[in-house]
Amino acid sequence: MNNEWRQPYRCAKANKVTMQSDAKPIDTRTRVHGLDALRGLAATGVVVTHAVFIHPLGVEFNRWYADYFSMGVPLFFIVSAMSMSLAYSDGIGLRNAFSYALRRFLRIAPLFYLLLAAWLHVGIERDAAAFWQNITFTFGFFSENQISLVPAGWSIGVEVIFYLLFPILAIFRSIWAAVAMTVIAFGAAYFVNYTVAVPQPDYFFWTHFGTNAPYFALGFLAYEIYRRVPEKQYQNAGLFCLTGGLTTLVLSFLYGPTLSAELVSIEPVPLSLIAGWGTGFALLALSQALFPVRALVNRGSTYLGKISYSVYLLHPLIIWVSFITPWAAAYAPDGNWVVPFVSAATLALVLPIAAISFHVFENPFIRLARNLTRKKRAAPQRDKWVEKPGSSN
Questions:
Q1: Has this prediction a pTM greater than 0.70?
Q2: Which tens digit of pLDDT belongs to each residue from 150-159?
Q3: Which of 31, 67, 94, 358 is at a distance of 20 to 30 A from 302, taking alpha carbons?
């Protein structure tokens, strides 16, 4: 593995850094490949879940715990908070507030609007209120419409709320501030899931910003820890966090609350699920920022991260209109092979289309945002490497 992958912040061409308090300098012009890779893996996991459940497959099959692949969305949120903290390491001020807003809008809106138009053409049910809430990205504030008219788009509503809060949250740059944010976020999750009266609209609890706030807070905490690790300790700290993260995820899977369709759709979300999976994912993200391992971080996974927003938003429509999943299930030799066959066939169709979408549709708007904001920012290239996916940044 070459040095570019082992030391994601140390690149010969990068010569601009930002120093904050007692933390190490933050290089603002290179890219953290480990976080890109985790975006790609998270998007792939969500595709697997939806491939298995969007259409009836028409055969009996072993589910292979496919529900758990939907936990890729919380991983998105953690990576998003960490990436945004790295990109805007000295915060958002009045001088760059417009640039920040424009970049965020042009990163998520064009593809979202394209998918919204496509789903309206397909015939998804909607009313005037839901339509305008999706146009204005305010649907995350309304419980009856927070799942979005764009399937899987609920996470965009959550991300938008995070984008609105980020300039304020970024003012407080310390490890103790991050700890306080985490405590407050878990308090919000408790309030939403333990005090709000039931029943609520389907998916209310799972898709509520309060439920997902701890993931963003844990991303902030991972960032604060990251910038305090001495560079000579990257490898040891990274491997320690990787071991701890994977162990936590395994224990959450074995002994934590069971992730089921009922939990996702109608039940309050247990804090133990949020804490277990969130802590495991935060440690995983921190480990791959510090010391990426090739099994997780390679050219394939980082490219998946690059196109992950297209993968995330496009795959439900592709699955819905193509009916590829029942077709693939019919070719599986037995029920144990249905999920692998369906997942492989779906990814084989989704990934090339997502790649085309990124290069033809997404990337021009990314470049446009950079060109429009270059003169408006004090440090125009500072977040050049950070690109939001899918739910995420």
A1: yes
A2: 999 999 999 9
A3: 67
